[in-house]
Design brief:
Structural class of chain A: alpha+beta
Number of strands of chain A: 10
Radius of gyration of chain A: 24 Å
Largest sheet of chain A: 6 strands, antiparallel
Order of helices and strands of chain A: HHHEEHEEHEEHHEHEEE
Largest interface: A-B, 36 and 34 residues
Strand content of chain A: 25-35%
Strand order of the largest sheet of chain A: 4-5-6-9-8-7
Oligomer: homodimer
Number of helices of chain A: 8
DNA sequence: AAGTGGTCTAGACCACAGC
DNA sequence: CTGTGGTCTAGACCACTTA
């Protein structure tokens, strides 16, 4: 093989050169599921220390190209999703119509004492019992978002007892006779945490859109639900009209 | 000081323990702009090798908590902002009003024929010449977002000729006598594309929030600017009030 | 048992910032 | 010049996977 692959006097770090080399190799010769040569092999191939190879592979891990499997090796991952702007258009979903046409599955339902963030948003004392419901929403059968709902227990006994899927807001309106108003939303993006990637059937290196919102009793204005929604970012464009 | 900070037999890696310790220290005792003790000092403080400290700081860098400055030290970064999207919200004004210093740097300025997405948003014929300006916005000296602005050339000759940084909307108001209104915004998240990660000084596996918005002449309603903004997701929470 | 990645140490030299 | 972070080497031991 052509040697002189690595130039120790080019000004570019060795790990960076090795990283670029491996990246090209992955794109040209390797397929998802294939394994890179072991770190030891790469180290002797490039005539560098194993740590330098590790640093190079770190770059690939960060770029989402490979995954390290302890005791097995370093595996090439499937390529990232296509983020083409035009393709996304059909997935556009408005905040206001969220929940209307989706299937909903309850993943977890617990009663817990409200901690800092939750108690602040719901304007209740810390430690007050709240219902914590984790739901998975599906669109056309495909996972779309995961939502953590928090509701004060004393206002939502029926939700804790009977809610078992479907539109939570419709349930609340039907059982409690309360209509909800979204007050404000905080939007950011992050990599999926906890089991979210699994529930959403998405890679862990692909981002989710996280929307925190507070829903209040339409009449009294009292906060009734604090929701943290994580959308698969590749399936959604939030549309905000002002 | 209380020793036994680091437990070599807890099963948790040293760098992870040190990382958690530093994170707590940052939140409790340090402010944005402060510097961590040097790697050497931390190494001797925790009685570990400097490399182990570096590995711990790597975690903080990835989490967006600190930034390494070659030859100076490791600086604590400001926490994420809440950035409110309302009709009149403007990047420069809204942050300046909160006492944040902002800066704007033009990365590229070109005249190109409008392609599908751009022509549709600006309601002009495909192929019509538009000014394409790429700007980098800094807050408190740190990269915050990259914006691609598209403006119809025939309405924005002065922008093409003279705009050289600072608030674009203030420039338009001053030179063209036109005030702008945001019409609607489309929000999603993705991994940084092109040179965005480099300009934003962020890892390529950390997500950006992308906001597409159309700004119209306040009086006539004619679209004058189509902007695609990419925020470092770890530095922003968009606040939407409906 | 052999091979893989994960962590830690020890020491070296470099490039950059600031006095 | 000194101190900082950036890179690289050499060697060790561990934990996990597979055979």
């Amino acid at each position: 093989m052509t040697l002189g692959l690595i130039n120790r006097n080019s000004g570019e770090s060795l790990y960076s050169q090795i990283s670029r080399f491996l990246e090209a190799d992955i794109k040209e010769r390797l397929s998802p599921g294939d394994f890179l040569p072991s770190e030891q092999e790469l180290a002797s191939y490039f005539s560098v220390n194993r740590h330098t190879v590790r640093r190079a592979i770190d770059e690939l891990v960060l770029a989402g190209l490979v995954e390290r499997l302890h005791g097995k090796g370093t595996m090439v991952l499937a390529p990232a999703f296509d983020y083409c702007i035009e393709q996304k258009t059909r997935f556009t979903e408005s905040l206001a119509s969220r929940g209307k046409s989706t299937d909903s599955k309850v993943l977890r339902k617990l009663v817990i004492p409200a901690t800092g963030g939750v108690s602040k948003k719901l304007k209740i004392k810390e430690g007050t019992e709240v219902v914590w419901i984790e739901t998975l929403r599906l669109v056309e059968g495909a996972p779309f978002c995961v939502i953590s709902h928090f509701l004060p227990l004393n206002q939502a006994i029926e939700v804790n007892t009977y809610y078992n899927g479907g539109s939570l807001h419709a349930f609340i309106k039907r059982k409690l006779g309360v209509e909800l108003n979204r007050k404000s939303s905080l939007i950011t993006a992050m990599l999926p945490q906890g089991d979210d990637a699994r529930h959403l059937n998405m890679p862990t290196n692909s981002p989710v859109l996280r929307v925190k919102s507070v829903n209040c009793n339409k009449v009294t204005g009292v906060p009734l639900e604090y929701a943290i929604t994580r959308f698969r970012a590749d399936r959604i464009q939030l549309e905000v009209n002002l």
